[in-house]
Amino acid sequence: MRYRELGRSGMSVSEIGYGAWGIGASGWVGATEDESVRALHRAVDLGVNFIDTARGYGESERIVGRVVRERAGDEVLVATKVPPMNRIWPAPDSIDPAEAFPGAHIRESVETSLRVSGLDHFDVVQFHVWSDEWVGRGDWLQTVEELKKEGKIRLFGVSVNDHQPDNALALVRSGAVDTVQVIYNIFDQAPADALLPACEEHGVGVIVRVALDEGGLTGRITAGATFPEGDFRARYFRDDRPAQVERKVAAIVADLGIAPDEIAENALRFVLSSPAVSTVIPGMRTVRNVERNTALSDGRPLTADQLAVLARHRWQRNFYG
Hints:
- The protein has 321 residues and is α/β, with parallel strands linked by helices.
- The chain contains 12 helices and 10 strands.
- The two termini are 36 Å apart.
């Protein structure tokens, strides 16, 4: 496993991190706790030292906390998220920060997460939505600084609204944030335009989510794909969206001259090819997922020619809507 600096924090994180939404049984159907625990342990065995969870991920914080406590001899960094008090994802325009992240709510959420996980601190606490309209307003930053002084959190970050990377530029430039988590993949390359350079300039760590487009960049989403009842992918890949994805992936495979089952590997290598990226956190619910994804931390980024090919495959759309 290779490691990268998490911005200016002084922390080193595994370039393949662990996205723990899927193990919480709150949006993805099919995870079992026994397999999730085995997968987490296997990830730590293979050098993963960064796990991303959230208060809103069902049982995820509890399961992650259990494994981290069982691995007390290993340094495993845990990031979690505070949901907005108004429960609105993503953050709409013109919402006062007091409606989404008042100080009392932030503190209550962090303390609940600590209690549920059994941990004594979090390495990163992130707001689960963000709006640059909140920079310099509200009492959220004061509360964040208090929680840092109390030793309950080490770093503060935000999870940038889906497909809105420029909506965190003011925050990054303000110096108030340590990390940003953002969607960045072959389809959504927009963060590379302004956000990633700004993070490099200001020493902000970058955590990349949805590198595989919720499964779209695995080659397994094809026309007619269906998902279990209650699985969020049934909405994400509704109507003719699977067929659209299948066509887009086929074009990438053809242009790169790779086998269809190599698309996921190339999608992760695309993200890791950016020096601004600190870690990518693919969702991993099984030992097999862990072993396959961690094997890509081998220091082989895509070539300039391959990146030039992929630059032509930007696809602006929002399947969360």
